[in-house]
Amino acid sequence: MVLGLACAAAGFLLSAALSLLAVAPGAVLIGASLPLIVAGVMTLFQRRTPASLMGRTDAALNVLIGVPQTAAIAAGAALIALVDYRVMLAVMAALMAASALYLATRTTHQPTETVVTARLAQEPGEETPTAAPPHRR
Questions:
Q1: Distance (Å, whole) CA 45 – CA 64
Q2: SS (H, E, C) the chain
Q3: Hey, how many other C-beta atoms are within 10 angstroms of the C-beta on 71?
Q4: Consecutive sets of 10 residues in the chain, 137 residues long: mean pLDDT of each?
Q5: Residue from 105, 79, 81, 110 nearest 92 by CA
Q6: Long-range contacts: 132-136, Cβ < 8 Å, 24+?
Q7: Rounded Cα–Cα distance for residues 75 and 35 (Å)
Q8: Assign residue 123 a region: left if phi > 0, alpha if psi is -120 to 50, beta otherwise?
Q9: What is the pLDDT of residue 137?
Q10: CB atoms within 10 A of CB 117
Q11: What are phi and psi of 119, to 5 degrees?
């Protein structure tokens, strides 16, 4: 996923150039980054979600992706009249690079599936597990 975000950042930055010789590889990088990002998100989704909650979580993920995407399209259409497209592409590149940097430098957490499964499997009246899963470093 980090590679996909970094490729997208480079692609957006190249797309802000004036030369077609820079814009064309930028478009290729943006297109190549999408499968990497989507595969990373879906893998994370499937690894971190218990099977019994997969349908609900998928519906929530679709809403969390679709609504902001629709709002971003509307905002972009309004902003293009006020701001140069190259500035918008540079801001997009900076946000993608910041996201890639964050993901590359954060600590990795153990999947929470064991805690969620334990809570779903407990009998009524049993004490709820309160311990958070340990972190991997």
A1: 13
A2: CHHHHHHHHHHHHHHCCCCHHHHHHHHHHHHHHHHHHHHHHHHHHHHHCCHHHHHHHHHHHHHHHHHHHHHHHHHHHHHCCCCCHHHHHHHHHHHHHHHHHHHHHCCCECCCHHHHHHHHHCCCCCCCCCCCCCECC
A3: 10
A4: 94 93 94 93 89 91 93 92 92 95 81 62 62 51
A5: 79
A6: 133/109, 134/110, 135/107, 135/108, 135/109, 135/110, 136/107, 136/108, 136/109, 136/110
A7: 25
A8: beta
A9: 45
A10: 14
A11: -70, -35
CA distances from 125 to 70, 117, 129 (A): 44, 17, 12
Output the six-digit token pair for 64. 């969390």
Task: Tell which residue, 110, 103, 94, has the closest CA to residue 3.
Answer: 103
Q: Amino acid letter at 19?
A: S
Residue type, 67: V
